[in-house]
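quick one, 163 residues, struct below
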Amino acid sequence: MKSLLIALSHFYRKIACKVSLLEPVALLGARLYVGWVFFASGLTKIDDWDTTLFLFEEEYAVPVLPYELAAYLGTAAELILPLLLFAGIASRFAAFGLFFVNIVAVISLEDIAAAAYIQHVLWGTLLAQLIIFSGGYFSLDRLVEKQLGGCPRIVPVARNARN
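---
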């Protein structure tokens, strides 16, 4: 029985190591997908600025800020922060900024459809992963980390299979 468990453990670890190779691709995909969602929203806002101002005044109930300032700040964030994500520059900062924009968008809408809410949850989850893991291997952040000696990685201690 013990040898069967050890064999299953080795098989599982082999598969897990192969799947882990997809982490950089998954982080790149998250950066590009979420970045595009917000960038496209920003482009829509600048395409018809009068409608954008009307929506911020009448539809979106952005707390604390005057509607004009909220429109400018939200649109600027939706256009600038995705560009940082695309390149993988200051990925955590950009993801945190968009995470905040995402939360404000959900709070600002009085009646949000269930499907739209689920999309915001998905975007928030992907942004949270980018905040935690940064831009990944395929980012300019990685080059900067190499030059500056980024955060040390936590590496599990290798154990002897016989223990």
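Residues 8 and 14 are 10 Å apart (CA to CA).
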